[in-house]
Write a structure and sequence with these properties.
Shape: elongated
Structural class: alpha+beta
Radius of gyration: 37 Å
Helix content: 25-40%
Number of domains: 5
Number of helices: 22
Strand content: 25-35%
Strand order of the largest sheet: 3-13-10-8-7-15
Largest sheet: 6 strands, antiparallel
Distance between the termini: 107 Å
């Protein structure tokens, strides 16, 4: 064979496609095993398009998806049914077309049948491409569209054919609808086509051609661009997820890993690779490097501008299209999935290197003829490479023990088991089915199970639910095993049924209950936050149980809820739990939604397990030293579900439980560093690691908070802490006196050592302190009050609190005393004006409440101002906040002090404040308990109604 004719090339390509089909088509539903979350989600999207008439430009669900592949899969679903076979068959056909397009692209871009044929042969037996051609993922469409687009572009550029240029623009625009990484494709083209503009003789023609291509591409992509313009979050959401984060790789390390995937070490993720296997072996990888260097060396030798553009494209493609995996530093790096945009361009580089070597051998030894050597090599690649790839894919990768579970094979099997089991039962005897899964409403079951709509979900294994009536069945897949805390309840009526795969891999366990098991009894002595506690009339907290925990561990909290009423449609109420100390400092918090509200049914009992972090540094103790603040909130806007008492009145937005005990625990190794390090030995065996500071400026009477980070390695003697504020100008110290660690509650002499303690303190700036610049000074004193150690804890700028002790003029006197502590002396009320905003308008009124402290207030009270409806119910308008918009808590007030609290009330259009009653009062935010009101020595309730005639 002296030359490779079109007939020879056609025969070779038929063989290449047959080999490619033999690798891509057999056992599509069985290999790979299982149906992963992402693949099932694609199946659902394809069904929406093919069977349910949706026509999206972009699919915002599942972090956002470009739809071109899903339209192809939707068409296949319409023809064959929305099945796994139809979805994967679509990907296999796209993969086969990509092999054929690779040959065409090589012919158009390089005008060399030998390189095109070798590249197509390499792609046909590529383990990398075979794997993705057998998965129903949209990414498989990206290489095909890029190959077709560039082939049409170069055919149009070589012959000046405008229909081909139009097709190129259309295909470039369609590439934007394939996959996220395709957004870099126009960047690659823009740089690669620069040689077309360097020749002054042809520049004008090339500019018109490229402008035409760009215009067609822009118009094709315009619907998608318009979607992103009106929905910018859809463009950025997935980019933000893979972008650099706090614990991500450095960009340098990520780039090195990404380039190493060519022939050193590849994707470590079993789902998309034999872990660590590079894209090319050492032979083909070495030829790839040789080919790239040859392109670089010969770049300027090509006479035609389109040839230089083609070579530059091959040079730049590995550098540009590797960026989607190199820049995804917050995810797995390298990633075969994100690097698929390298196909088909990198598959031309090994043939270029090989032909250069064969040509050199032919020149030196005059045998074998180059064309014959290429033909033999192509046959070798297809036959031997095909056998090796078949072995690697079907015998090595597909039989990996972990692949079944990595690919959600447990839920795949559960779908068939559930359908068979439930179909065998009469409708009236079917239990309520609860399925645990990492993800709520897992797409694998949605795609595969006919009973999906009747399933209840236990995401994350954080909750266990018992229905109000009837039997229950609980299915725990291998990827979401039943948590240890739930086993006593699940196994109350017997051990589980275990279902395993043919290879012995456990797939899932099934637990059955005919009735709710015995639940933990309520505490014998109710805590200050007694249960049951009704939240919003929707759900009641019936019991709280905790167990002691050491610092550095998790504090186990089990909440027993009972659903009172079905929540509003679309409502979501997650649980929040805050671990606080007696001073209100929040040490840790957690929010979780163990059983989403849209599944609640009246009578359901929900056991929710929450593991609250007990952070290192937490001083040990119990007996009210710590408390849990818990409740329900809407994750969308943060609004808390209110507690209501037996009369339906507001009782706070959370519940406090003091059943918390923290044990001493070993210190962490290494010790953490505080925000302001000191790292000094205070006394023998006691080290001050540093400190935390709150505000660096304060007014007199305001509380300042700070924390000392201590480390102790031996028992400590009796010592105290001395605090003072030292004036920066005069050096005069203003002493606070002596205190003990942790709000004066945990003396050094009681420490269990070795210990790491975060010693939180809260002190009030004295009212008598002159304004100025101060330093907070700390001394460690022995039993005789002698200083053992001293250090500075940073600056504090002090300003004077302006206090008013004389009543100002006001329009209406009230003379109401709230809780025996704070009097409402009077108020002023006036209409303001109507404000217009577009088509709407509101009327406003100004209200000034004049308060006076009768004694020192004992708590920070919340003021409520309610403009009542005509029937006396709340509310046309309301405000609930500490005085002066939360800026002046009542504990800062002094006996006799007067505080003017202003509000601007908004009313409906045309309304006047005289048309409404205004209710005013004070309450404790934590409990909703209102302060009683006394007027002229007579108790009149828990609020006053103001006259509203200005």
């Amino acid at each position: 064979m002296t030359r490779l004719t079109r007939t020879h090339a056609l025969a070779f390509m038929v063989l290449a496609l047959l080999v490619a089909a033999a690798l891509r088509l057999p056992d599509l539903t069985a290999v790979p095993p299982g149906v992963h979350y992402d693949e099932a989600a694609y199946g659902l999207n394809a069904g929406d398009i093919g069977l349910r008439g949706e026509r999206p430009v972009f699919i915002p669900s599942f972090t956002g998806r470009e739809p071109l592949f899903l339209y192809l899969a939707g068409g296949m679903a319409r023809a064959l049914g929305n099945t796994l076979f139809a979805l994967r068959l679509t990907a296999a056909f796209v993969g086969l077309l990509t092999v054929a397009a690779t040959y065409w692209l090589g012919r158009e871009m390089l005008a060399d049948r030998r390189i095109a044929l070798l590249a197509a042969a390499l792609l046909a037996v590529s383990f990398w491409h075979v794997l993705f051609s057998r998965l129903g993922f949209r990414v498989i469409s990206q290489p095909l569209l890029m190959a077709l687009a560039v082939a049409a572009l170069f055919r149009g550029l070589r012959g000046g054919r405008w229909p081909w240029l139009w097709a190129a623009g259309l295909l470039i625009g369609l590439t934007a609808y394939t996959y996220l990484a395709a957004r870099l494709f126009p960047v690659l083209l823009a740089f690669a086509l620069l040689p077309l503009l360097l020749d002054s003789d042809t520049r004008a023609v090339r500019l018109r051609q490229l402008a035409f291509v760009a215009l067609v591409a822009f118009l094709t992509a315009l619907p998608l661009l318009g979607y992103f313009y009106f929905n910018p979050d859809a463009f950025w959401v997935r980019i933000g997820q893979v972008a650099p984060g706090e614990n991500s790789l450095s960009l340098t390390e990520s780039l090195l890993r990404a380039f190493g995937m060519f022939f050193l070490r590849g994707d470590p993720y079993l789902r998309f690779n034999l872990p660590g296997r590079p894209l090319f072996d050492f032979v083909s990888g070495g030829l790839l490097l040789v080919g790239w260097l040859i392109c670089l060396w010969r770049y300027r030798r090509f006479p035609y501008d389109w040839q230089r553009a083609a070579v530059l494209l091959l040079l730049l493609a590995p550098l540009v299209m590797i960026l989607p995996t190199a820049l995804a530093v917050n995810e797995i790096v390298p990633s075969n999935l994100r690097a698929l945009g390298l196909i088909p361009f990198v598959f031309y580089l090994p043939p270029i290197g090989l032909i250069a070597l064969l040509r050199d051998v032919e020149r030196r030894f005059h045998r074998p003829p180059l064309t014959r050597a290429v033909s033999i090599t192509a046959l070798f690649i297809l036959l031997v490479g095909g056998v090796l790839t078949q072995h690697r894919y079907f015998r090595q990768w597909a039989t990996q023990p972990d692949l079944l579970l990595v690919n959600d094979g447990d839920l795949t099997a559960a779908a068939g088991w559930l359908d068979g089991t439930l179909a065998a039962l009469p409708p009236g005897e079917r239990p309520t089915v609860y399925v645990a899964a990492v993800h709520y409403r897992h797409p694998t079951l949605a795609f595969l199970s006919a009973n999906y709509d009747s399933l209840k979900w236990l995401p994350g294994g954080h909750a266990l639910v018992f229905p109000a009536t009837g039997a229950a069945l609980y299915l725990y897949p291998a990827n979401s095993p039943a948590p240890a805390w739930a086993l006593p309840y699940l196994e109350a009526e017997g051990p589980p049924e275990i279902v395993s795969a043919a290879n012995g891999t456990e797939l899932f366990r099934v637990y059955r209950l005919s009735a709710p098991p015995q639940l933990p009894p309520p505490a014998a002595e109710p805590t200050p936050a007694t249960v049951p506690a009704d939240f919003g009339g929707l759900i009641t907290l019936e019991n709280i149980t905790t167990a002691p925990a050491a610092a550095g561990e998790s504090l186990p909290v089990t909440l027993q809820w009972r659903v009172s009423a079905a929540p509003p449609a679309g409502a979501s109420y997650a649980t929040f739990v805050h671990l606080e100390d007696l001073n209100g400092h929040r040490w840790s918090q957690i929010e979780q939604d163990g059983y989403p509200a849209e599944q609640w049914q009246p009578g359901d009992v929900i056991l929710e397990r929450i593991d609250v972090a007990a952070p290192y540094g937490l001083p040990p103790g119990g007996d009210g030293l710590y408390r849990l603040r818990l409740g329900r909130f809407d994750p969308g806007d943060g609004a808390r579900l209110p507690r209501v008492n037996a009369t339906g009145s507001f009782a706070g937005d959370s519940l406090l439980s003091y059943d918390v005990a923290i044990r001493p625990g070993p210190p962490p190794d290494p010790l953490p560093q505080p925000p302001y390090p000191v790292n000094e030995a205070a006394v023998e065996g006691l080290f001050l690691l540093g400190y935390e500071r709150g505000a660096l400026a304060a007014e007199t009477g305001q509380i300042i908070e700070f924390a000392l980070w201590w480390s102790a390695d031996r028992p400590l003697p009796y010592m105290t802490l001395g605090l003072s504020l030292v004036n920066e100008t005069t050096g005069v110290a203003w002493p606070y006196g002596t205190i003990q660690p942790f709000y004066n509650l945990y003396p050094f002499s009681l420490w269990t050592t070795p210990a790491f303690i975060i010693d939180r303190q809260a002190v009030r700036v004295p009212d008598e302190l002159p304004p100025g610049e101060y330093r907070l000074r700390l001394e460690l004193l022995d039993g005789q009050q002698q200083a053992l150690y001293a250090t500075n804890l940073g600056p504090l700028a002090v300003s004077r609190t302006e206090r008013l002790f004389e009543l100002p003029a006001f329009n209406y006197a009230v003379g109401a005393l709230f809780g025996g502590e704070i009097a409402l002396a009077g108020y002023s009320l006036s209409d303001l004006e109507t404000e217009f905003s577009g088509k709407n308008s509101v009327s406003t009124a100004a209200l000034e409440l004049v308060w006076q402290a009768e004694t020192q207030p004992t708590a920070d009270y919340t003021v409520f101002v309610h403009v009542l409806n005509a029937d006396g119910t709340c509310c046309v308008w309301q405000a609930d906040a500490m005085p002066r918009g939360g800026a002046y808590p009542t504990t800062r007030w002094r006996p006799g002090e007067v505080v003017v609290d202003a509000y601007e009330i908004s009313l409906p259009e045309g309304a006047e404040i005289r048309d409404y009653e205004i209710e005013v009062g004070l309450y404790v935010a934590e409990t909703g308990q209102r302060l009683g009101v006394v007027i002229n020595g007579t108790m009149v309730g828990d609020a006053v109604v103001l006259e509203s005639r200005p």
